[in-house]
Design brief:
Blueprint (H helix, E strand, L loop, with lengths): L2 H8 L13 E3 L3 H5 L3 H11 L8 E5 L1 H12 L7 E4 L9 E5 H11 L3 H16 L7 H17 L15
Parallel strand pairs: 1-2, 2-4
Antiparallel strand pairs: 3-4
Helix pairs in contact: 3-6, 5-6, 6-7
Length: about 170
């Protein structure tokens, strides 16, 4: 789908065949209190990011679950904002797992809306699944620019641009 067509399709209802929503699993009910439309926002952010061949599954979890995964899979005994898992088979979309408490704290500290931070992290995860990374300075800058472009199409402020004031 061409970028212009994709932008128009994002505003349509989810039953539009051209944009299939990413499955969103809410394992931690607190997500619905923090971001009342969490499933819709996460699915819309995933659809806006050019990703791998398949549609990723997005899991909205708690810090404890993400900590366990991070310890098991990365050897780091702490929760992190987002973990991405490549697809088990070609053509599948992989998995993006987000930690409620970490996302809440980061959004508050940065003076951003939790919904905007959620969308940003989903876009970040989809870009990882598509092969982007941020280990080197050049890679990080390219990934940040891609995130900013995608978020701008969603009407979300650039998370890499310093902001004045507090969260709204």
């Amino acid at each position: 789908m061409e970028p212009h067509s994709r932008r128009r399709a994002l505003g349509r209802a989810w039953n539009d065949d051209r944009v299939a929503p990413a499955p969103v699993l809410v394992q931690e009910p607190g997500w619905r209190r923090l971001v009342p439309a969490a499933e819709r926002i996460a699915a819309r952010a995933a659809a806006a990011a050019p990703g791998s061949a398949g549609t990723p599954t997005i899991v909205l979890a708690d810090d404890r679950a993400v900590r366990r995964l991070n310890r098991r899979d990365r050897g780091r005994d702490k929760p992190t904002n987002v973990l991405t898992y490549p697809p088990a088979l070609p053509g599948l979309g992989g998995e993006i797992v987000l930690a409620l408490g970490v996302v809440r704290r980061e959004a508050r500290a940065a003076g951003r809306r939790p919904a905007h931070h959620l969308a940003h992290l989903v876009v970040h995860g989809v870009l990882h699944l598509a092969g982007h990374d941020h280990h080197g300075a050049g890679e990080a800058r390219a990934m940040e620019q891609a995130e900013a472009r995608i978020l701008r199409r969603l009407g979300i402020p650039n998370p890499w641009k310093p902001r004045l004031g507090s969260a709204v």
